[in-house]
Each structure stands twice: as C-alpha cells, then as structure tokens.
Amino acid sequence: MTDRSHLEANRANWDERVAGHLIGYDVAGFAADASRISTVVRDDLKLMAPHLPNGSMTGLSLVHLQCHIGTDTLSFARLGAQVTGVDFSGEAIAAAREVAERAGLDGRFVQSTVEEAPIAVDEQFDVVYTSIGALLDEGLVIEAFGEQDSLPWKMLPSMVEADPGGPFDGSWVLPVGRERVPMTFSIAARG
User: Where's the Methyltransferase domain (predicted)?
Assistant: First the structure.
C-alpha cells in the first residue's frame, strides 16, 4: 500500500464512523443542553488551565486538529473560545457543521489533513489542541501530564456508567474495588 492509499483507507474508516458516533456521543443531547461540555474537554481542561491566561478559554482562539464531529471543539466554544476544527474526513466536517448549527454555536470547520492545515486554515491561534488518538512529534516539551480514570465511551466490558452528578458524570469507569487503570492521558506540550 502506498502512503496515499493508506491515507484514503484511514479517511474511509473515519467517514464510516461518523453515523455511529453521532449516536454514541449523544449529539442530540449535546446540542440540546447548552451547559454540556464533553468529558474529554472537561478532563483535558483541568490539565490545560494552569497554562491558560486566567486559567480560562474565554476570548482565546483555538484550533482543534483531528476534531472529528466537533463535540470537543464546540465544548471549547461553550467555554468562551473562538474555535476552528480541522479534520481530513469530509463526512466528519459536514457532521461538525450540523452539530454547531443544531447547538446554536459558532465554529469554523475545515476539511484538511494535519500536514496541510497551516495552508488550509492560514491563521495563528492562541491554543492548538488535539486529543484522543493523537501522537506527539519529537521536539515538543511536555509541560504537564495527567491520567484520567474515566472514558466517554465503554471501552472494556467491565466498565459501568459513572454516578450521575459525581465527578465522572456522563462517563464510563471501572467498578468500585477494581484495581486502578488509567483510561486516557492528557498532555500539555509546547514546541
């Protein structure tokens, strides 16, 4: 397989995931609840806050690379950021625009690979964000590292829904008494 065919196969894979993720991520609930912040952003923001002016996203410009259907990107919009989401999946970008419209949120969504994003977007941002499924490139200095004990989806058969109103509300966790295993990691890095 060539690099181009790998890219196209990966893009087709993400295109196919959109319909299921619109349901699995409860996009209807996200759009209807103006206070809902995705669990991914809620977890990442705890780590990011010490590195943000006044510990807040308010008034900052943010580009979210590999934004998929935009729920995390739009969560940052709800926190006061001016957001741009970038993804190579045309299906995901179309869905992100629809989610923004349904939620009544402002957000720009651009179809592009990460490598082509500087040309496709042609802006500078206060915050460059990427999350689940992203890898760091060499040369970045890790400033903070955090582990989360919850996931926004049920990854393991033994996971249970977190208690409503608790610290992991809306997430999946391991049952009480189970040995602790970090579910995801958040990294703040600077180049």
Answer: 66-131
CA torsion, points 73, 98, 21, 166, in degrees to nearest 10? 50
Question: Going from the N-terminus, what domains does the chain have, and what CATH number goes with each?
Answer: 3-190 (3.40.50.150)
% of residues, the chain, pLDDT over 70? 89
* 56 touches 78 (CB < 8 A): no
- pTM score > 0.85 for this model? no
pLDDT digits (tens, 9 = 90+) for 1-59: 567 888 899 899 999 999 999 998 899 999 999 999 998 999 899 888 888 888 899 99
Q: Two tokens at 50?
A: 């010490």
What pLDDT is attached to residue 156? 66
Token pair 């890898």 is found at 135
- Residue 14 has, within 13 A of its CA and on its CB side, a CA count of 21
Q: Please, what's the largest Cα pairwise distance for the chain?
A: 50
Q: Please work out, in degrees rounded to the nearest 5, the angle formed at the alpha carbon of residue 179 by the alpha carbons of 173 and 157.
A: 45
